[in-house]
Amino acid sequence: MSGSGAQTPVPAPRASGAAVAPSAITHLGPELVERARALIALYPERRSALIPLCHLAQEQDGWLRPEAMVDIASLVGVTPAEVYGTATFYDMLHTEAVGTHVVAVCTNIACLLGGAAELLEHAEASLGINVGGTTPDGVITLEEAECLADCDRVPCVQVNHRYVGAQTPETFDRLVADLRSGARSDDIPSHGTLVRVRRTVGLQADREQVAAERAAMADAQAARAAAASDAKGGAS
Ligand code: FES
Question: Which residues' Cβ are closer than 6 Å to ligand 1?
Fold first, then answer.
């Protein structure tokens, strides 16, 4: 569901694939880097924070810029190509520029029966772009989506992953006008902002307890593997 346009080249690593010092981070802002480090601290392994950090970078830039991917790679200790490879797997992460508002029209079966194809056709005509395109003013990117899990309000439309209810061609045009004028900025922030609330407390789980449970799990796995191996040996 990523936007259209020229393919973004895979960002080149800064130093032969090796993680660089966090002080070398050049694109992500200081406040964001601080939040990134707090997120990384929640995980036993730095690379587990890769996707949350991609969302942070999207919050800053609206999409995942190549230079942001290089910074994320440095922070989590992987190569930029790994960040790119992971990001391109997920619909919510955009490795190409998108508008400040990504409008997704569901065309899955319930919505299709409720007029989604006609709505999408109207959206393309009224915005002057094809699906996957962005309006010249950079405000709207139009996407066609699979089921958005709001099948009783069809055709279902989301803007920046917020439900805006079933739309007709008329209400769709009003919605776009409101997005352009900023009238919906309270409930629909710019693309990339998932939430406006910030975590104010650390990890609630007891780290020692988590470590003990992981160790017990590993022991149980090893015991099961050994039992399976014994059973195989006895059968042969
Ligand atoms: S089919 Fe459109 S939201 Fe489920």
Answer: 106, 108-111, 147-151, 154, 156
pLDDT (tens digit per residue) in 120-179: 999 999 999 999 999 999 999 999 999 999 999 999 999 999 999 999 999 999 999 999
Rounded distance from Cα 109 to ligand 1 centre (Å): 7
Atom of ligand 1 nearest to the CA of 106: 2
The pLDDT value given to residue 81: 97
Mutation choice for ligand 1 from 120, 152, 154, CB with most ligand atoms inside 8 A: 154
| Placement of tokens 């629909």 in the chain | 188
pTM of the model: 0.80
Please identify, by atom number, the ligand 1 atom nearest to the C-alpha of residue 148: 3
Distance CA 219, CA 207 (A): 18
- Name the percent of the chain lying above pLDDT 90: 77
* Domains of the chain, earliest start first: 101-181 (3.40.30.10)
Burial class (CB in 10 A: 0-12, 13-18, 19+), 77: middle
